């Protein structure tokens, strides 16, 4: 039984590991530069896949971007220079996590504002719902007005005749 669990956990760990699209011919010989390249690649969006980093994407454009990142690092660029180069070339969309700036303020504020609006809508709906229940459950005194009693007796008489 323990052997089965060990094999099962090994299989699960193999399938749970992140799949990286970096091919061996892209890997830099300098481990420090390669680590910087991987860190930068994880922050950059694949323009084809759009929900994957270029590190995870198999698209040809993602490969070109990975190679470009490595070329810039080998040329001596800092991480911020590489990011700025790619943003200048492809726009802010190339970043998986956009920078906080005035032109991205709406993007950053949209999530919290939507959450606040949703919570406010839930609170309002719950208040209306509990208010209508209280109105429906409120006692009327149990007595009918003289007009209501007259109308009720007329309805009962007409019902007996039918």
Short description:
This protein is an all-alpha fold and 162 residues long. The protein contains six helices and no strands.
Mind explaining what this structure looks like?
This protein is an all-alpha fold and 162 residues long. It has six helices and no strands. Helix 2 crosses helix 3. The relative contact order is 0.07. The mean pLDDT is 80.
Highlighted features:
162 residues, mainly alpha, 6 helices, 64% helix
Q: What's the structural blueprint in terms of helices and strands?
A:
Layout: H1 2-16, H2 31-43, H3 60-74, H4 79-90, H5 105-137, H6 146-161
Q: Overall pLDDT, averaged? A: 80
Distance from N terminus to C terminus (CA atoms, Å) equals 80 Å
- Assign a percent range to the helix content: 55-70%
Strand content: under 5%
Query: Would you report the number of β strands?
Result: 0
Main sheet: strands, sense, barrel: none
Our count of helices gives: 6
């Amino acid at each position: 039984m323990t052997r089965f669990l060990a094999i099962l956990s090994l299989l699960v760990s193999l399938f749970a590991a992140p799949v990286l699209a970096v091919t061996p011919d892209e890997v830099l010989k300098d481990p420090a530069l390669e680590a910087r390249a991987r860190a930068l690649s994880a922050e950059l969006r694949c323009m084809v896949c759009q929900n994957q980093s270029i590190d995870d994407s198999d698209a040809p454009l993602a490969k070109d971007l990975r190679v470009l990142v490595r070329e810039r690092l080998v040329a001596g660029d800092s991480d911020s220079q590489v990011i700025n180069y790619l943003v200048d070339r492809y726009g802010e969309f190339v970043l998986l996590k956009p920078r906080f700036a005035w032109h991205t303020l709406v993007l950053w504020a949209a999530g919290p504002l939507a959450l606040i609006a949703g919570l406010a809508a839930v609170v309002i709906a719950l208040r209306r719902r509990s208010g209508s229940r209280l109105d429906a459950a409120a006692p009327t005194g149990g007595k009918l007005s003289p007009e209501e009693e007259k109308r009720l007796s007329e309805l009962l008489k007409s019902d007996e005749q039918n």
